[in-house]
Amino acid sequence: MMQEPPIDRPVDTASGPPPPLMDDPQTTVDHAYADLVAKRHDLGLVAPKRNADETCSPVCTVEDPPAGPSHTAGCAAAAGSAGSTCAATCSAADATCDDAAKICAVAKQQNTEGSFAGRCHEAVATCTAATPLCCRCP
Q: Which of 2, 10, 39, 83 is most buried, taking the most CB atoms under 10 A from its CB?
């Protein structure tokens, strides 16, 4: 029987917990929520009053987020505003609505998780507040 050669140096091993999986619902919501908060700050919007996490029995009620400004009928600024300020405003408003859609999609899948429903509600309120900023942009 052949003997294995000794290892000259220690083998590197991972330390700490493994990185979160990108398809993990909590990770998805956390990333979208962090982006939503940043865009809300960029737009100068205040955080909507957050309700306590809903107690879901048997399931949570989850809202449908509105479409972003670029998908809103009659929103002329989103359709092709030439001003860079308006373009940035509309881009940020669209991003908040995209984040709201991601958060609410997870909340619907995880419909017994009150924290997801609460973040969905907050995201919908932010998207709703951001849309007029774009649509009324000169």
A: 39
The 3-class secondary structure across the chain, one letter per residue, is CCCCCCCCCCCCCCCCCCCCCCCCHHHHHHHHHHHHHHHHHHCCCCCCCCCCCCCCCCCCCCCCCCCCHHHCCCCHHHHHCCCHHHHHHHHHHHHHHHHHHHHHHHHHHCCCCHHHHHHHHHHHHHHHHHHHHHHCCC
Single out the residue of 76, 98, 101, 90 nearest to residue 42, CA to CA.
Answer: 90
Residue type, 78: A
Residue 51: phi and psi, rounded to 5, are: -75, 155
pLDDT in tens, 1-10: 677 776 676 6
Q: Are 117 and 54 a contacting pair, CB within 8 Å? A: yes
Q: Residue 100 in contact with residue 65, Cβ under 8 Å?
A: yes
Enter the pTM of the model.
0.75
Which tokens is 105 given? Answer: 């999609």
Cα(79)–Cα(88) distance, integer angstroms? 13
